[in-house]
Write a structure and sequence with these properties.
Elements: H1 3-16, E1 24-29, E2 32-37, H2 47-60
Antiparallel strand pairs: 1-2
Helix pairs in contact: 1-2
C-alpha cells in the first residue's frame, strides 16, 4: 500500500473523528513514512495523541505494514 494512500486515509479518519490535522505531520524519507503527532499539553499526554495512534493502527494492521512507535520529547519547543 502506498504511503500517500495511508496518509489520505489517516487524514480522512482524523476529520471524521474531529481530530485537528495540525497535530499530525507526514514525512517520507527513503521509503519510510514518518508520522509526527504533536502533544499540546504541558504536563502529560493529550488524549487526541492516543486517538491518532489508534487510528494509525486500525489503518495499517490489516495491510501488514510494519510500524514502530517512538516517543520524543522536546522541551520548550513550539
Amino acid at each position: 500500500m502506498e504511503s500517500d494512500v495511508i496518509k489520505q486515509i489517516i487524514k480522512g479518519l482524523c476529520k471524521v473523528n474531529d481530530i485537528s490535522l495540525r497535530k499530525v505531520r507526514f514525512e517520507s524519507i527513503e521509503g519510510v513514512v514518518i508520522i509526527g503527532v504533536k502533544n499540546h499539553l504541558k504536563d502529560g499526554v493529550d488524549l487526541e495523541c492516543f486517538h491518532i495512534l489508534n487510528l494509525i493502527y486500525q489503518v495499517i494492521t490489516p495491510f501488514g505494514v510494519k510500524f514502530n512507535q517512538q516517543l520524543y520529547l522536546y522541551p520548550n519547543s513550539k
